[in-house]
Specification:
By secondary structure, the protein is α+β, with helices and mostly antiparallel strands. Helices cover 39% and strands 19% of the residues. Helix 11 crosses helix 12. The longest helix is centred in the middle third of the chain and has 24 residues, at 225-248.
Length: 580
Amino acid sequence: MKMIVEKIENKFDAEEVIEDFEALTKDAGRIQEETLQKILEENGGTEYLKQWGLNGRTDAETFKACVPIVTHKDLEPYIQRIVDGDLSPILTGKPIETISLSSGTTQGKPKFVPFNDELMESTMQIFKTSFAFRNREFPIGNGKALQFIYSSKQFKTKGGLAAGTATTNVYRNAQFKKTMKAMSTPCCSPDEVIFGPDFQQSLYCHLLCGLIFRNEVQVVSSTFAHSIVHAFRTFEQVWEELVVNIREGVLSSRVTVPSIRLAMSKLLKPEPELADTIYSKCSSLSNWYGLIPELFPNTKYIYGIMTGSMGPYLKKLRHYAGELPLLSADYGSSEGWVGVNINPKFSPEMVTYAVLPNIGYFEFLPLEENLNGMEKANSPVGLTEVELGEEYEIVFTNFAGLYRYRLGDVVKIKGFHNGTPELQFVCRRNLLLSINIDKNTEKDLQLAVEAAAKHLVDEKLEVVDFTSHVNISADPGHYVIFWELSGEATDEMLQDCCNCLDKSFIDAGYVSSRKVSAIGALELRIVKRGTFHKILDHFVGLGGAVSQFKTPRCVGPKNSSLIQILSSNVVKSYSSTAFC
């Protein structure tokens, strides 16, 4: 029996996976009802749901009439009791044994979210479905994936539960490895590198493993696009040392973790010809353009999350990728999955996600404003009731104890696949730069930075990374934008950038407030090279995983440690004269 099970797990039938997906999406409305019924049957006896008077009913109307829409803050007291070891059925019928930490880089501290087998199953369903559609367009043979993935340590909570980032909980699950193997994309790097305690050493070894298996690499990927960019920015600094390691078959002394050294010693042997090839490839490149296909000639595509806050890294990623296609990974969060990319040929800017109707119960809050520019309280609509072209905030109910939970993401309905909507990620709802009547989203900030960065192009300079902050300690309050640059720029050029940033926020509330000085002059602060790396180190020091790190695009007032890191590394500061 065991052999039969293993055989089934080892065989991956893409067409069968696609057929299952087609069947699910054709009957999305009924599947949604069944999914909600299943969630409520399993968890109806919990303390949380009993208080709302469902009395055993599992239909959508009763559920929506009785159970309130909530945020993480509302559920925090319940989750904290679970974290502290309360085994009674609080949020779920079956006890929660694992906790995920969300990336939590906006509020300065991670959030705890329940994680269970059902979430793991939906993760594998998402991975398999998107791989099936990807492989139809970009078939890969039996090769390897150069995956820049890093797993932070799982730790035990006060109540004895295993806690780690969502990516760590997935990577450490036996199902993950089996699924990757079945999909013929095992990782180049040994487990010791992925689970290593030191991110820099793991990154160095990921690069080294990729080079050792350079002809077998078919996919270059990471959880987020910025991790791939960061990896190849690092490669530019250390490539000659990597070449020496390959030539001599001896690992660099910069790697000190014994388990990693042992694992790498089994892969390394003197390969002077390979070293010569890599050396000549790197020496002949112009400004590292097309680095990835030069190093890994059989790569079919580059894969990772490329939407939302990853948008600013695409230009540099395309520079490294040359002609290789960039494929955007699926849409989910620490709380659970939402949709799958079934159109892998779409560019990251155009990518949409088809919602899987059996992984949770989905509702959509319409985003409408009344005449005063304030958002109206609207009734949410169901998965099959959304309208083309409209924007909504996602509210979802999952199998791990979240009921009518506001995810905080704004999405736009771009189309339908059978009966399920295809969503485009717009922005995080709460990541707004706002002082009074102004409202600027993460996308608005990104567009302003892109416009201003054009002033740097002639000097071959680029914005390495950026973030923002609303300074309300001054009166009137004003926006502060922090930039890290790839080199030195003149004061004149940076003053132009600063004015351009200010002018690029075209939100009517911002422009009118600036004109009457209800909002002060925007400030551009230039920070030292490596400052954003210090922010990453700070995040990892708090127990976060590198693979889950996203540069916070707006640093909140409560996040004093991040403000401290940024402020102490400022080398130049400019105030806008755009509205003078």
